[in-house]
Design goal:
By secondary structure, the protein is of the alpha/beta class. It has 20 helices and 10 strands. Residues 137, 371, 373-374, 379, 397, 399-405, 445 line the site of adenosine-5'-triphosphate (ATP). Residues 403-404, 445, 525 line the site of magnesium ion.
């Protein structure tokens, strides 16, 4: 029944997202996942081992208490060779030692956990940022940040508390059983007979707890998607006064989280209370038997007290282990999610990497392409063209024709389905990807800036550039004037994604960034929203300076800007339908370019 509900919930989530989501194969080696995560403790194994020693010592000292208490009982009754004061002094020493060991244990485990968890977060982020675009098109940002936040936090409590507690309880169990076995073997065996029931229950309940906990974390990730997306486009939410709609959407995901968490709690509660009843049931039987031994004279009162005290310790340990066990199951659920990301392969690295500078002619040959997330729609068909080094070419065509896609393939954002793209006779796949991309500069269709200062945003083009170089770049990009008109100049904060700047200002920042990068190849994806005449002139002028000496591909919407390029390609439905210079294409009877030109002329 539970299997059913969890599959329906995950499939409804997939259809909600509306994207093709890969169905994950069922995981079987769950402990293996946690084990892989354990690998992150290895660098701190020395401190971890020390922590284990302290753990053992603090458990051992805690367990000496009941023993001494029972000795005290026998001493009070006049048996044994110690005085009451001697025993009391001994108790005091144990008390101090116990304090020191507990302190050291907590500190060492915290040290290991905090470091290991930070390493896991770093590893997840490091892997995420290197994955290819197709991965991000299938997921949503909110879901991924939830992985780094909520799932890792789940592991954190497991590493810092549960593992140590688990070991402590096991140690209590082992030491406790050793002591009671030493006191009475028969009674001990009687008690141990109740154990298999607990183990079977653990196996039965553990599965459900793990699965439900995983669904809870998924639901949490889903709710995080709502927060992330609405906060990112808060202006739009308000403009459409859809606050209530988003609140309702969020409430719904929260209800799901609570429902799943409570369902898991039901299993956890049933498991723990079952275990406690079983254990205490066993204890009662043992006590009843022990009382008979004392009555028959085969056991002293001190021994019985010792036995009872230790049995309670053992009972508590078993109850504790049950709770910890279910928490560890939750952690396994979380670690599966994390290893999912860690196991993704980063962007393809070629075998024989060409490290040299990227220069020469750019050649597209029979390129076919469809996006990985929409494999059945062919976006590019048989695209072939040749750009000589230093030439400037333009791509024009209707919206959705495939112009941006053509240049995204040059950036190696997606693998080709068929055909090849070469630069200087080397297939672009053979270049080292970082070196390769560092040679290409882009001014994208929609400029998105980082939330920091103008200075930081320009520096993104080349982080080691000097302040003077940044200033120079801003000057060439026609951006210096407006930057200096701000009271804070280059230190002006641009707001989340750059919303405190106008469209034309953002573009000029992006141009300054590209100037700083100084790439051999330049891609300009013209913004579709038009600027006023003055900003347009400033941007065009800046672009002209930027294009000098560089192989450039311009995606143009305003044909006036590409009159002087070496070659124009008209793209329609993913194919090149016309090509030539401006003059050649304007003379073409019934040509698409000619029509576009006429249309823009009439509009202008
Ligand atoms: N990431 C993506 N995943 C799936 N399909 C996509 C993706 N990006 C674009 N497409 C689809 O590919 C086709 C070509 O899009 P592309 O962005 O190349 O058009 P464009 O010519 O640049 O248009 P515009 O002039 O509006 O910018 C469109 O049908 C679009 O829906
Ligand atoms: Mg486009």
């Amino acid at each position: 029944m539970d299997t059913d509900s969890s599959t329906t919930s995950s499939s409804s989530q997939a259809s909600q997202n509306g994207e093709v989501q890969q169905k994950e194969p069922p995981k079987t080696h769950s402990f293996w996942e946690l084990w892989k995560i354990f690998g992150y403790i290895l660098p701190y194994k020395g401190v971890f081992a020390l922590g284990l020693v302290f753990l053992f010592l603090s458990t051992a000292t805690a367990l000496i208490f009941p023993y001494i208490a029972s000795v005290l009982a026998d001493v009070a009754l006049g048996n044994g060779q110690w005085s009451i004061n001697q025993v009391g002094f001994f108790l005091l020493i144990i008390l101090v030692l116990q304090g020191i060991f507990s302190y050291a244990r907590i500190w060492t485990f915290a040290y290991v956990t905090e470091n290991a968890i930070a390493d896991i977060r770093k590893a997840v982020y490091n892997r995420l940022i290197k994955l290819d675009l197709a991965f991000f098109e299938q997921r949503r940002v909110g879901e991924l940040t939830s992985r780094i936040a909520a799932d890792v936090t789940q592991l954190q409590s497991t590493f810092s508390i549960h593992i140590a507690e688990f070991l402590r309880q096991i140690a209590t169990l082992v030491i406790g059983i050793a002591i009671i076995a030493y006191t009475s073997v028969k009674l001990t065996l009687l008690m141990l007979a109740t154990f298999p029931i607990g183990i079977l229950a653990a196996m039965y309940f553990g599965r459900y707890i793990r699965r439900l906990s995983k669904s809870t974390q998924d639901a949490l990730a889903e709710s995080n998607v709502v927060v992330e997306e609405t906060l990112q486009s808060i202006q739009m939410v308000k403009a459409f006064t859809n606050e209530w709609l988003e609140t309702a959407r969020y409430d719904k995901t929260m209800e799901r989280v609570v429902k799943l968490a409570l369902k898991a709690a039901k299993y956890r509660g049933a498991f723990v209370s079952f275990l406690i009843s079983a254990v205490f049931g066993g204890i009662i039987i043992v006590l009843w038997q022990g009382a008979q031994y004392v009555a028959a004279g085969s056991m002293t009162i001190g021994e019985l007290i010792r036995f009872i005290l230790y049995t309670f310790f053992i009972g508590a340990a078993i109850g504790g282990i049950g709770d910890i066990y279910s928490n560890i199951q939750k952690a396994i659920g979380a670690s599966e999610r994390i290893t999912d990301i860690l196991d993704e392969t980063p962007e393809i690295q070629s075998e024989q990497l060409v490290k040299q500078e990227i220069k020469g002619d750019i050649v597209y040959q029979n390129v076919h392409f469809s996006y990985p997330t929409r494999k059945d729609v062919v976006v590019l068909k048989n695209i072939s063209f040749h750009i000589q080094k230093g030439q400037k070419v333009a791509l024009v065509g209707a919206s959705g024709a495939g112009k941006s896609t053509i240049v995204q393939l040059l950036m190696r954002f997606y693998p080709l389905n068929n055909g090849s793209i070469t630069i200087g006779n080397n297939n672009i796949q053979n270049y080292d990807i970082s070196t390769f991309r560092s040679n290409i500069g882009t001014v994208p269709q929609e400029v998105i800036l980082f939330g920091g200062t103008i200075q930081e945003n320009i520096l993104y083009g080349r982080p080691d550039a000097t302040t003077t170089e940044v200033r120079q770049a801003a000057l060439k990009a026609n951006a210096l004037e407006f930057i200096e008109s701000f009271p804070q100049g280059f230190d002006t904060l641009v707001g989340e994604r750059g919303i405190k700047l106008s469209g034309g200002q953002r573009q000029r920042i992006a141009i300054a960034r590209a100037i700083l990068k100084d790439p051999a190849i330049l891609i300009l994806d013209e913004a579709t929203s038009s600027l006023d005449a003055e900003s347009e002139r400033l941007v065009q002028d800046a672009l002209h300076k930027l294009m000098k000496q560089r192989t450039t591909i311009i995606i143009a919407h305003r044909l006036a800007t590409i009159r002087n390029v070496d070659q124009i390609y008209v793209i329609d439905g993913g194919q090149i339908v016309e090509q030539g210079t401006h003059n050649e294409l304007s003379d073409l009877e019934d040509g698409i370019y000619k029509n576009l030109l006429k249309l823009q002329f009439e509009l202008g």
